[in-house]
UniProtKB/TrEMBL annotation:
UniProt cross-references to Gene3D superfamilies, sorted A to Z: Alkyl sulfatase, dimerisation domain, Ribonuclease Z/Hydroxyacylglutathione hydrolase-like
PANTHER family in the record: ALKYL/ARYL-SULFATASE, METALLO-BETA-LACTAMASE DOMAIN-CONTAINING PROTEIN
InterPro entries recorded: Alkyl/aryl-sulf_dimr_sf (IPR038536), Alkyl_sulf_dimr (IPR029228), Bact_Alkyl/Aryl-Sulfatase (IPR052195), Metallo-B-lactamas (IPR001279), RibonucZ/Hydroxyglut_hydro (IPR036866)
GO molecular function: protein dimerization activity
Species per Swiss-Prot/TrEMBL record: freshwater metagenome
Every Metallo-beta-lactamase domain range: 33-237
Protein name: Unannotated protein
């Protein structure tokens, strides 16, 4: 059973980690953004995913309410800011207690990720402000204030950790949301800590701001997890799956395999990305699954990442090989329509319609904005309203936040 079916708000950063629960002997689950797991052996502790930097002290408090044992390992399921950045608080706890500092364990690509993060920090901070707008001001602060604690032990494929006394932990690599992903297997308890292979939502297999994700390999990793017959699977975001863990894993894997096959089939039939994006939807039996609701990621984002994986950037339309600027195109359109007023009139009609109508209105209003004339400010204001309206019907955390945060920016541009 899934203990917590999260909506976007449950996936929000306002969920500070509190109240670790023992889900199997010596395995404690601490819900946060993302989740943390404590694996307790006879001689020491492994902390899987210390979470966001700001949540590190809470993670330590929760651990110390359970045990005084030394933390031997901090294991990163992957190097994302919401999983691998609470480490400084754990290192400080070790210092204060006179413990040896823990080994930090992650896949070999975690260190490379951290190098890329440091190199592109300005861009990342900007996109975090957009993607995590529902955290309030400064979603990008997790990037701006990041302290990087790279792995002291890294591995390529498989790693066994024997430093906890009576408990052995296995780290297994798979590609999925990232190229540096680990899922942790605790054989004696038959528990998997799955990181963001499992997010209690349609997998986040393609997201507007991020680098390539790995849809087919993600399915393979989930199938590998099902093959060990876990009694509990801890998600990276959301809850813990128990009796239905294998079903969740296989249904999720099936959806990813289906998407990969469908996009490839259409490409081989000669379709281009616009048609594929417009038409691909999960079959009803998958789309209706409680495991695959678009609460964080969504299907069209995954389709976009599959396209990026398999094809170049050419979109099938030779007009776009060397495109004119949006401003030049908009100026021509406005000259033909006799100015902004006729566009505003049509935008008003479409604004009252469906989400698809509102989407169409967004494209129309862009002509007014990009043309940059005297009505551009009003264009920004109307665009802000349209973005808010689109956001209201958007289930996906990522899409909702991008629409809401860009609405704020458009409203500001209307008055600047
Ligand atoms: Zn995550």
């Amino acid at each position: 059973m899934n203990e917590q079916r999260p909506g976007p708000e449950a996936l929000g950063a306002s969920a500070r980690p509190r109240g670790a629960k023992e889900i199997a002997p010596g395995v404690y689950f601490l819900a946060g953004f993302g989740n943390t797991t404590f694996l307790i052996g006879s001689e020491g502790v492994a902390v899987v995913d210390p979470g966001l930097f700001i949540n590190g002290p809470r993670v330590v408090e929760e651990l110390r309410a359970i045990t005084d044992l030394e933390v031997r390992y901090v294991i990163y399921t992957h190097g994302h800011y919401d999983h691998a950045f609470g480490t400084p608080a754990i290192l400080e706890d070790a210092r204060v207690r006179g413990h040896q500092p823990p080994e930090i364990v992650g896949h070999a690509n975690v260190a490379k990720r951290f190098e890329r993060y440091a190199k592109t920090a300005g861009h990342l901070a900007q996109t975090f402000d957009l993607q995590f707008a529902s955290w309030g001001e400064g979603g990008g602060d997790v990037v701006r204030k990041a302290q990087y604690c790279p792995p002291t032990i890294s591995y390529e494929d498989h790693l066994e950790l024997n430093g906890l006394g009576d408990r052995v932990i296995e780290c297994r690599h798979g590609l999925g949301e990232t190229d540096d992903h680990t899922w942790v297997w605790v054989p004696d308890a038959r528990v998997i800590v799955g990181g963001d292979f499992i997010v209690s939502s349609m997998p986040n297999a393609g997201t507007p701001f991020r680098v390539q994700r790995y849809v087919l390999e993600w399915a393979e990793a989930l199938e590998d997890m099902a093959a060990v017959h876990p009694v509990a699977v801890v998600s990276g975001h959301g809850g813990v799956f128990t009796e239905d863990a294998e079903e969740m894993l296989s249904v999720t894997a099936a959806s990813l395999r289906w998407l990969d096959a469908e996009v490839v089939r259409r490409l081989n039939e000669g379709q281009w990305q616009e048609q594929i994006l417009d038409e691909v939807e999960l079959p009803a039996e998958l789309a209706e699954s409680t495991y695959l609701q678009p609460l964080y990621g969504c299907t069209s984002f995954a389709v976009r990442d599959l396209l990026r994986r398999y094809v170049g950037w050419y979109d099938g339309n030779p007009s776009m090989l060397f495109p004119s600027t949006r401003a030049d195109i908009a100026a021509e359109v406005l000259a033909m329509t006799g100015g902004s007023e006729s566009i505003f009139a049509r935008v008003d009609e479409l604004s009252a319609g469906t989400g698809a109508d509102q989407q169409l209105a967004l494209h129309l209003i862009d002509f007014v904005i990009f043309a940059g004339g005297e009505h551009a400010a009003e264009g920004h204001a109307r665009k802000a309203d349209l973005l808010d309206a689109r956001a209201a019907s958007e289930q996906s955390f990522v899409a909702h936040n991008v629409l809401k945060s860009t609405a704020v920016i458009e409203r500001k541009m209307a008055t600047d």
